[in-house]
Hints:
The protein is of the alpha+beta class. It contains 4 helices and 10 strands, in the order E-H-H-E-E-E-E-E-E-E-E-E-H-H. A 10-stranded antiparallel sheet has the order 4-3-2-1-10-9-8-7-6-5.
Amino acid sequence: MVQIVGKYQHVSNENFEEFMKALGHPELVIPFLQSKAVVEVQRNADQWTITVTSDGKSSAATFKVNEPYEEKLPSSDRKFQSVTTQEGNNFITETQLGDTLKVVRLYEFTDTEMKVVSTFLIHSIALTRKSLKLNFIVQPYVQKMTFSFAYMGTSWYSTMQRLLTNLSN
């Protein structure tokens, strides 16, 4: 089973501009494309929390699988009705944006990444956002620095290890 809990750094988009235009928010394309959001997935018993932080702003959704909940999407100040189901290592979130508008998000988790495929059902447009798990981004640097700084003394090495550990948490 994949470890879903963790922090993920956004790295790429596919079809983002078309998706935002179909949602009626073309003005959000440039700010979203320039931001590098961090998504944190947490679990407390049967309750999940997904927090998105970008440009100093955060938006969190807390839910139980298969139960309706209100969600504030990062692109809007309004709250929407959502339901999230789980299939293995994946979450499927259906969000009702209006009487006839629905967005379905498929969160696919692996050991190294989270891929979110959002589909705007009325227009059949799909957006894919890929985020890498933070500890997998930092780990190669820790290994290289272990070798490079080993000769500089225990104090420097310990400080760098603590710094990099804090960055990955």
